[in-house]
Write a structure and sequence with these properties.
The protein is of the alpha+beta class. It has helices spanning 37-50, 67-85, 137-148, 162-181, and strands at residues 6-12, 16-23, 30-33, 53-60, 94-101, 104-111, 117-121, 128-129, 132-133, 151-158. The strands form 3 sheets. Strands 1-2-4-3 form a 4-stranded mixed sheet, covered by helices on one side.
Length: 202
Amino acid sequence: MTRPRTATIERNTKETRIAAKLAIDGQGRYGISTGIGFFDHMLESFARHGAFDLELHAEGDLDVDQHHTVEDCGIVLGQAFASALGDKAGILRSGYFLMPMDETLAAAAVDLGGRPALVYCAPSPFRLVGDLQAELLHDFFDGFAVHCGANLHLRVLYGRSSHHRIEALFKCWAKAMRFACSKDPQLGDRLPSTKGILEKGV
């Protein structure tokens, strides 16, 4: 019997309290609340376009800054994917996607091979997009990559609207993750690696 690819994660610190539930083989259902409206919208978009069922609720010290909340959500989401994927047997492992959104084009490529690294080329010309401090997305994706054991490359090729730039980025990341997490019927239960193991640092 195939193990359901689900995870429940809780992370409590003096700065944030975060609870997440993830089902990789979902239908894009979500319940998100972080206290940052635009960030909620982006995580909802990630869940819907990746067809992941995601519940994520965060309480953070937003009276101080958004940094702890945004970064820690990335950490928790990375931990959730790492836990739900288990030994990663039979997955495609890597995926990439180009996402147009009106005048914007964004690209994402991910490898779930266990070597955490982030290349982030998506600066925003504005400090705030909606109510989100846009520069913190680098910290969010870095937290995700490290704790998921993912090699993640994200880039906005061009675009005028900062809203479109960020939303296109989340959507193409979702599509790339959906492909990378998908089961490959040709692999069966074999690992997509000549090393015979996929884990952090390998």
